[in-house]
Design the sequence.
């Protein structure tokens, strides 16, 4: 585990936690090894650092979850040690409210203008990057979105529950509903903003197909990734190789009735089987043939599902997957502009990989039974799946367009 160098209390914190690849087991990590790096801080900061490292270590099997938890906990610890000068065990609800206000409007010297590497290598030693900042914005003013606020509450609530279980804290300062309602807004059809329209999806799959035709060596893989994220509602963590999950070709399995399923381990380390559609099976065949494999996998086949181009190994970086999908989004946006759809193409600039899962689910609940979609998506409740049932915004607007402001009063003959 890489630890930060000491910093005066009037400066923004340096990164406390390195990436998964460089994180050592904190249950075997000696406290004295990091004591010199914590700088000016409460006496209990060293114990806080150790318990936070142990909490994060539990999430090393999911890179996306690990990165989200690391970000929220790192921000919070920086505030506790540098601003509040208070150890975790003494954080009260009032302290937490002060932190939320701080996170919504952090000081300028805590805000960076671009994303930079957290650690750099200097003389073969990994050290904190002095240009790194806890918060990043490309606009004139930093603004914490509602989704980021929800992430803050969710992660720190889970963190404090862990601290209570480990006797490192006696109460969870995030648990008061009144506190959450002060900051978090409820929003009708919130998920609708995290999906592509049918038109946008059509251009995305067209772009992926075009890219695969132009450069099969690189983009047959991209086409398969795009197809799997949409058609099987996969999360990005279900495509990359991690210590807890290794997606293989053999996880496509045919049952005794000849029907194909995809076995995966998803969020919360939950196993599930996903029904494979005929078109998704065709996409798998195309992808395998491009890799020099037989059209369909054999039982127990151990070939990595998503391979590195320069080796036979599996892709282990979710960032690499994101880059490929973003390249496809950019190509789709360009195609839309070329077809006179500039305004509708702009949404692709803010779309993320996870939108493909949302889009696939939202399209399927229109014609598949909700309980079938629920099980394929890995939702714990049908209520979660129901959130995806909506109408297209264009249809909703069209039905409202000719509404009259005036009551339709019948005219009676005199």
Sequence:
């Amino acid at each position: 585990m890489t630890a930060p160098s000491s910093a005066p209390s009037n400066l923004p914190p340096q990164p406390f936690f390195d990436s998964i690849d460089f994180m050592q087991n904190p249950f075997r990590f000696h406290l004295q090894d990091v004591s010199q790096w914590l700088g000016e801080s409460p006496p209990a900061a060293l114990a806080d650092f150790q318990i936070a490292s142990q909490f994060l270590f539990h999430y090393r099997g999911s890179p996306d979850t690990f990165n989200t938890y690391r970000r929220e906990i790192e921000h919070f610890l920086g505030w506790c040690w540098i601003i509040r000068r208070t150890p975790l065990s003494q954080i009260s609800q009032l302290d937490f409210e002060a932190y939320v206000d701080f996170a919504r409007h952090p000081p300028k010297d805590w805000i960076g203008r671009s994303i930079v590497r957290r650690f750099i290598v200097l003389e073969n030693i990994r050290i904190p990057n002095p240009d790194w900042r806890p918060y990043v914005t490309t606009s004139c003013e930093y603004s914490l979105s509602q989704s980021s606020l929800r992430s803050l509450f969710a992660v720190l609530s889970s963190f404090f529950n862990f601290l209570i279980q480990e006797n490192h804290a006696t109460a969870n300062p995030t648990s008061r509903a009144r506190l959450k309602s002060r900051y978090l807004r409820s929003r009708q059809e919130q998920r609708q903003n995290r999906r592509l329209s049918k038109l946008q999806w059509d251009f995305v799959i067209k772009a992926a197909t075009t890219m695969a035709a132009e450069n099969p060596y690189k983009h047959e893989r991209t086409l398969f990734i795009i197809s799997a994220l949409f058609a099987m509602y996969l999360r990005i963590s279900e495509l990359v190789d991690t210590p807890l999950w290794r997606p293989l070709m053999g996880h496509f399995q045919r049952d005794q009735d000849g029907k194909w399923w995809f076995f995966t381990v998803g969020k919360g380390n939950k196993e599930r089987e996903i029904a494979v559609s005929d078109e998704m099976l065709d996409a798998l065949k195309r992808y395998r043939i491009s890799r020099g494999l037989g059209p369909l996998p054999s039982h127990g086949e151990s070939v990595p599902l998503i391979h590195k181009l320069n080796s036979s190994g599996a892709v282990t970086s979710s960032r690499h997957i994101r880059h490929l999908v973003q390249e496809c989004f950019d190509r789709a946006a360009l195609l839309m502009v070329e077809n006179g759809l500039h305004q509708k193409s702009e949404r692709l600039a803010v779309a993320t990989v996870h939108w493909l899962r949302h889009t696939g689910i939202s399209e399927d609940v229109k014609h598949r039974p909700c309980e079938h979609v629920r099980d394929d998506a890995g939702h714990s409740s049908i209520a979660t799946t129901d959130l995806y049932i909506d109408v297209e915004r264009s249809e909703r607007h069209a039905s409202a367009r000719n509404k009259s402001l005036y009551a339709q009063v019948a005219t009676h003959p005199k």
Notes: The first helix runs from residue 45 to 57.
